Amino acid sequence: MEDEDEVAIRSLHTLEEVFTASELFSAVWHGDRSGMAPNLLRALAHSGNYVVGMFAGEHMVGASAAFFAEPAARSMHSHITGVLPEYQSQGLGRRLKQHQREWALERGVGHITWTFDPLVARNAHFNLNVLGARVTEYLVNQYGAMDDGVNRGDQTDRLMVSWALAAPPAPMPPDEKVVASVEIPTDISAIRRDDPADATAWRLRVRRQFVDLLEKGLVVGGFDDARGYLFVEASG
Fold it and tell me: Is the Cα torsion angle 126, 234, 161, 169 positive or negative in sign?
């Protein structure tokens, strides 16, 4: 895309739009037909939740869906956000998240939560370093078996993160504050494709290390592309 300013983000209102968004999610996740059905997107949108598409002209190139948490939490959970493969690595995912942030703030929401695979380095960098979200939980096999081209054959461990919308991103912890680190591969997708056994070994090793460090009371203070997740003592 030559000019990302040509992209528009808007709420989805018609049946045609929600069907297109569901097909887009299927394309992003390599054939998953069960991840976000059109009727569920339609219900979420009609009941006032966040369901948007990103359009280049009339062509939908990205989409996102989120729903409100319990009222007292002033929080929203972002369940799925995706950009078509040919439009990735152009800053469009960040634009979607910033639109989600502005939409939430207008409605009195202070935090947005979501989950991501702890083995995917680019997502860890984006979520923790670019957006400034903070890890709150390690969830073992959170969604069970998933039959899509990204997750098929793997257990769906996830990190839950919380994004404080009005707070600036926390700086990377200084080396003297880092107590431990958990390394992850640079490209888990390639390992899953070329050596599934090695991918499983990464999953189990990272799970074991994460759970052990969290049980010791440490927290994730940041993510370093070379060292992985950086653990620090919990403050306060």
Answer: negative
